[in-house]
Write a structure and sequence with these properties.
- The protein has about 375 residues and is α/β, with parallel strands linked by helices.
- It folds into 2 domains: about 220 residues, Alpha-Beta Complex (Inosine-uridine Nucleoside N-ribohydrolase, Chain A), CATH 3.90.245.10; about 55 residues, no CATH class.
- About 25% of the residues lie in helices and about 15% in strands.
- Strands 7-6-5-8-9-10-14-13 form an 8-stranded mixed beta sheet, sandwiched between helices. Strands 1-2 form a two-stranded antiparallel ribbon.
- The protein starts with a strand and ends in a 13-residue tail after the last helix.
């Protein structure tokens, strides 16, 4: 069977739906002719008839239209960001087609930490918080465990339920609609996706990977990150240029809800914009304030405050205008679409959008429970 030739422009010798083996993948250059038949790898800025912003074929849509791509959420720990709570609300509102949640609890040798069952516990607790908060759990898939290994060598190509689920879902949804590739949100090490590629490397052509910091801490597992960077289509952000901004104090945040005072311990749960969550009486939203903003060390440590939905690159699929610059760059040995510009106006748009979703009472149809 013929394969793809990869250069600056992808040349198709045979329809993608007939390909079963892929050596490498690259993005096409910036697309300027949106009237021609597009392929999954095409991207461009300022698509005619669409809101201004960065566009990736098959994902971003006209304003007011649904993003119908299947979404797989893959993370290492579920309590270090509030992306999962936003994701639950999106799915409950039928604004996100969430088809899988994968947990990848792999030992990170550079950082020398591995909590194993503790990581799995964070995912279970996130699901329980969603249930207590009234999320429509029929729209929330169960947690599937991906690559779990005590060291990086042991994780290379290791099969898991998560890896096989990747293969099944990506192939099944591509067969149903090749124009709507699966969106993968990668918030940790990509060991499970890399192992899935070892099982069936054709999946690389059938999905888009939104990655947070492939070139640094989330890509430190080199076997996996280099494999995924080489073979998959990746939208990456992280240094240079970042989704999040480091703020000295919480009351300087642009994306997260701001409290009145600089340090977390100076604020009660009704401080500043925190009260927008607390006064709802909703269990899930009260958890965000009481157990996340006030207690997470990376949020509350003096001198450095993370500001952003730190693993939430895939928010772009619903807000194409938030990334105002991107270019092809080499990251971990592969050609990826690197975000190069995300400014303060973009931050404001993310905040408005995500807060509106989290505070939408229709996201919590079942009940409201005091925390």
């Amino acid at each position: 069977m013929k394969r793809l030739l990869f250069g600056c422009i992808i040349t198709v010798l045979q329809p993608l739906s007939q390909l079963y083996s892929i050596e490498s993948t690259q993005w096409n250059p910036q697309t300027t002719d949106w009237n021609r038949k597009l392929k999954i790898g095409d991207w461009g800025i300022d698509r005619p008839g669409f809101p201004q912003g960065l566009y990736i074929h098959g994902i971003t849509v006209k304003e007011g239209k649904k993003v119908n791509n299947p979404v797989i959420y893959d993370n290492d720990v579920y309590d270090d960001v509030i992306d999962d709570e936003w994701m639950f609300a999106m799915a409950s509102l039928k604004k996100m087609r969430l088809v899988a949640q994968i947990l990848t609890p792999l030992y990170a040798e550079k950082w020398k930490f591995y909590w194993g069952d503790e990581w799995i516990k964070t995912a279970d607790e996130a699901m329980e918080n969603a249930r207590k908060g009234g999320i429509d759990m029929k729209r929330i898939p169960p947690i599937t465990i991906g690559t779990e290994a005590p060291n990086e060598k042991a994780g290379e190509g290791k099969e898991s339920k998560g890896a096989h689920l990747y293969v099944k879902l990506i192939n099944d949804y591509y067969k149903k609609n090749p124009g709507l590739p699966v969106i993968i949100n990668m918030g940790g090490q990509c060991a499970t996706l890399a192992s899935a590629w070892c099982i069936d490397n054709s999946i690389a052509q059938k999905c888009i990977v939104y990655y947070t910091d492939l070139g640094n801490y989330n890509g430190d597992y080199r076997w996996a990150s280099e494999l995924v960077a080489k073979h998959f289509r990746i939208v990456n952000f992280g240094p240079p240029g970042a989704w999040w901004k480091s703020k000295l104090y919480q009351n300087q945040w642009n994306v997260f809800p701001r409290p009145d005072y600089p340090e977390a311990d100076q604020n009660d749960v009704n401080s500043g914009e925190w009260k927008l969550f607390t006064q709802t009486g909703n269990y899930l939203l009260q958890y965000i304030v009481k157990d996340f903003f006030k207690n997470r060390k990376e949020i509350c440590l003096k001198g450095w405050k993370a500001d952003g939905y730190c693993d939430g690159t895939f928010i772009h699929a619903w807000l194409p205008g938030i990334f105002s610059g991107a270019e092809i760059q080499t990251v971990r040995g592969g050609q990826v679409l690197q975000i190069t510009q995300f400014d303060e106006e973009n931050e404001k748009r993310v905040k408005r959008f995500t807060m509106d979703i989290l505070l939408n009472v229709k996201a919590y149809p079942r009940t409201k429970t005091e925390y």
